[in-house]
Amino acid sequence: MTPDLHTLLRQQTAGLHRRLDGAPELLALMRPGLTPSAYAAALRRYAAAHARVEPVLQALAPAGRPGLPPYRPRLPALQADLAALQVSPAVTPEPTGPAPALGPGACLGIRYVLEGSTQGARVIAARLARHLPQGCEQAFAFWRFQEIAAAAWPALCACLDRPPRDALEQAGIVQGARFAFDTFIDVFFAAEPPS
C-alpha cells in the first residue's frame, strides 16, 4: 500500500528538516540571552530565504490549488520587522547550484515546507515572548503573521491526505519540498548573513 503524500513528504524530507532545525540562528531564537543583533540576523535570513522561495511558488501556482487557501506571502511581514529594527532588507543570496526545473506538482511540496513552518513558528514565538530582547517588541509581525497563516495547515494536510496519483506527481511534490528546504538551508548555513 502506497503511503499518503503527507507521510511520503515527511519521510523524504526528514533529514533536511533536522538539518534546518540545527541552524545556529534558529537555535538562538529558542534560547534566553538573544541579542538584538542576533534577532535581526535571524530575521534577515528568513527574509532572504522567503525572497527566493515565494516567487517560485507564485510562478508555479499563481491561482492556488482547489481546496487550498491561497498562499499568503511572509516576506512583507519580515520586511516590516527589519524596518522596525532599522536594519536594511536582506539581500537575496545566489543559489549554491542551478535552480531545478520544477513542475506544477512542486507547489504542494513548497507549500508543505512554508505552511509547515507555521507549526514550528508557534514554538519559537512562545519562546520569543519570554526572552525577546528589549527594543525588539515592535519587530514581531512575522511571528504574528505565522500564527494567522497556520490556518492553512489543516487544508494543506487534507490535500496531502491521499496517495500520489502517479510516480510523476509524487516526484514533483517531493522535489518542491526539497527545493524549499534546500533554499532555507543554503541561506541559514551561508557563512555570512545576508547584507
From TrEMBL:
Gene Ontology biological process terms from the UniProt entry: heme oxidation
Gene3D superfamilies xrefs: Heme oxygenase-like
A Pfam family hit: Heme_oxygenase
GO molecular function: heme oxygenase (decyclizing) activity
Recorded superkingdom: Bacteria
Name of this protein: Heme oxygenase-like protein
Species per Swiss-Prot/TrEMBL record: Thauera chlorobenzoica
